[in-house]
């Protein structure tokens, strides 16, 4: 094999890897269909099935999102003065197998922010929460940040996580 | 531009198109198959064992929605040689590669691709890519460079494809003059499908130095699938004027498919004959995997000369993904 071959193979594999995400969810397509007289129809029909599968997957994700338990309120103070709403008693360890939660912690990027308001502390608190609800471990599903509309430079860091099966 | 740069440029242009112009998502699917067989060939009493790759391949295909009812479609397929990694000196060799625009008007597509005549065969060749492949006996099984084609929508079971093949300076018709036109070579097919019946008429003009007419039939009756083909072809130099037929049958019994095919073609110019006979069975191991066994005998009979007879026996497996 010469150097050109290596580059050629690498280029093909690179393109294949770029498309591998889509390939993993490929529809039912027989390899020999690619060389059939109706190969164009097969491409279109197959991808239509793909579209419907994507819709199913989106619906499934939507359903799953309903089952995610929020561990925080809307950010406003309740009558008791508690902002965040734990669903398990503090100080206890529990494991809710396969259950998903979303937790959030505030942090600040203001120049005058205290160390207790730093993102480092927010992450530390989130990990304490995750360990609290998923004592045997968890999978991180999603992470995102939202600005605090009431204070410029303040944010909420969100972790969506799911407790492991065992 | 070297191949790597070309590939990157194509990938980059696809990416730009997907983000800037396409209305829908890029749906790409990787597909392929590994097909390996251990074959004993007996060529005129000379015995040899081989491991064959049988056109194992890797491909990518998909469509991108441009507007409602209008799509860009593409396919890029490469052969990989599982037996020794050497595909004519390359790690991968190009198979069918095309891009096109698909709408209610049909599909306009171009690339390097099986001709409409070859596509019209519709896998009545039950030993495709093996020693019994009909390309070893019949003309017309061509993968053509520089093909520009139009495929009609299917209307009441009818569909047609017409393809132009520019010569790009090659002497495709053998008249001693370089051909530089758009339609130096032509290939077309007209097919009809309804329920279990498939019929096709296909023709080539100045493709692989041949003018050719082919008729194909395939019919499925429960577990039995029958195929038949009749073909006439003559080369540009008038040294070959062949006509022949081909029949095949496959019968499915649970996970096993029994297969048989026979083809015969005779050259009216010199009286030479070619014959192919294949028998075999596939055993389905899973939805995408099968094991198979086959026997093939290909005979070339030339007037005033002893027959050239090749027989092969092989076992193999195919896995599609």
Give the percentage of residues in beta strands of chain B: over 45%
SSE ordering of chain A: HHHEEHEE
Class based on secondary structure composition and strand pairing of chain B: mainly beta
CATH superfamily of chain B: Porin
Large-scale geometry of chain A: elongated
- Total number of beta strands of chain B: 17
In total, how many domains does the architecture of chain B comprise?
Answer: 1
Provide a descriptive summary of the structure in words.
With 166 residues, chain A is of the alpha+beta class. Chain A is 39% helix and 19% strand. The N and C termini of chain A lie far apart (49 Å). With 321 residues, chain B is mainly beta. Chain B is 7% helix and 60% strand. Chain B has a 16-stranded antiparallel beta barrel with strand order 1-3-4-5-6-7-8-9-10-11-12-13-14-15-16-17. The longest helix of chain B is centred in the first third of the chain and has 18 residues, at 3-20. Chain B is globular. Chain B starts with a helix and ends with a strand. At the A-B interface, helix 1, helix 2 and helix 3 of A face helix 1, strand 1, strand 3, strand 4 and strand 5 of B.
Comma- or semicolon-separated keywords:
heterodimer; A: 166 residues; alpha+beta; 2 domains; 4-stranded mixed sheet; 4 helices; 39% helix; elongated; B: 321 residues; mainly beta; Porin; 16-stranded antiparallel barrel; globular; disordered N terminus
Gist?
The complex is a heterodimer of chains A (166) and B (321). Chain A is 39% helix and 19% strand.
Q: Mind sketching the topology for me?
A:
The complex is a heterodimer of chains A (166) and B (321).
Chain A: H1 3-18, H2 20-24, H3 39-66, E1 69-70, E2 100-108, H4 119-133, E3 138-147, E4 154-163
Parallel strand pairs in A: 1-2
Antiparallel strand pairs in A: 2-4, 3-4
Chain B: H1 3-20, E1 26-43, E2 46-52, E3 57-67, E4 70-80, E5 92-103, E6 106-114, H2 116-119, E7 143-151, E8 158-165, E9 185-194, E10 197-207, E11 210-221, E12 224-235, E13 241-253, E14 256-267, E15 273-284, E16 289-301, E17 308-320
Antiparallel strand pairs in B: 1-2, 1-3, 1-17, 3-4, 4-5, 5-6, 6-7, 7-8, 8-9, 9-10, 10-11, 11-12, 12-13, 13-14, 14-15, 15-16, 16-17
């Amino acid at each position: 094999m010469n150097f050109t071959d290596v580059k050629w193979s690498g280029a093909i594999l690179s393109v294949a890897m770029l498309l591998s995400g889509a390939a993993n969810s490929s529809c039912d397509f027989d390899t020999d269909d690619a060389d059939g007289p109706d190969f164009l129809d097969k491409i279109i029909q197959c991808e239509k099935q793909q579209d419907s599968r994507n819709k199913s997957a989106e619906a499934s994700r939507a359903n799953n999102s309903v089952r995610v338990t929020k561990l925080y309120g809307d950010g406003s103070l309740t009558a008791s003065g508690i902002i965040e709403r734990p669903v398990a008693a503090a100080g206890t360890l529990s494991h809710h197998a396969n259950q998903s939660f979303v937790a959030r912690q505030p942090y600040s990027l203001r120049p005058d922010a205290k160390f207790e308001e730093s993102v480092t502390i927010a992450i530390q608190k989130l990990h304490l929460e995750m360990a609290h609800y998923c004592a045997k471990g968890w999978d991180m599903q999603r992470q995102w940040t939202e600005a605090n509309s009431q204070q410029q430079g303040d944010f909420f860091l969100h972790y969506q996580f799911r407790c492991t099966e065992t | 531009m070297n191949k790597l740069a070309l590939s990157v440029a194509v990938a980059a242009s696809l990416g730009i198109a997907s983000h800037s112009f396409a209305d829908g998502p890029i749906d790409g699917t990787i597909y392929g198959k590994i097909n390996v067989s251990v074959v004993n060939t007996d060529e005129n009493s000379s015995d040899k064992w081989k491991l064959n790759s049988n056109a194992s391949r890797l491909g990518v295909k998909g469509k991108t929605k441009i507007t409602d009812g209008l799509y860009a479609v593409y396919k890029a397929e490469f052969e990989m040689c599982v037996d020794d990694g050497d595909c004519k000196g390359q790690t991968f060799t190009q198979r069918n590669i095309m891009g096109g625009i698909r709408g209610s008007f049909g599909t306009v597509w171009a690339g390097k691709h099986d001709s409409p005549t070859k596509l019209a065969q519709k896998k009545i060749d039950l030993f495709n890519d093996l020693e019994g492949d009909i390309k070893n006996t019949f003309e017309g099984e061509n993968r053509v460079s520089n093909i520009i084609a139009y495929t009609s929508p299917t209307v009441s079971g009818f569909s047609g494809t017409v393809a132009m093949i520019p010569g790009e300076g090659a002497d495709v018709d053998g008249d001693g003059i370089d051909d530089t036109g758009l339609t130096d070579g032509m290939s077309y097919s007209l097919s009809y499908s309804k329920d279990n019946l498939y019929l096709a008429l296909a023709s080539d003009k100045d493709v692989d130095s041949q003018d050719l007419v082919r008729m194909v039939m395939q019919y499925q009756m429960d577990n039995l699938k029958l195929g038949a083909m009749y073909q006439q072809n003559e080369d540009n130099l008038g040294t070959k004027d062949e006509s022949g037929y081909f029949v095949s049958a496959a019968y499915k019994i649970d996970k096993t498919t029994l297969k048989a095919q026979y083809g015969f073609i005779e050259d009216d110019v010199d009286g030479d004959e070619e014959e192919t006979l294949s028998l075999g069975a596939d055993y389905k191991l899973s939805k995408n995997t099968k094991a198979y066994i086959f026997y093939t005998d290909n005979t070339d009979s030339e007037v005033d000369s002893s027959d050239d007879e090749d027989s092969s026996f092989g076992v193999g497996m195919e896995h599609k993904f």
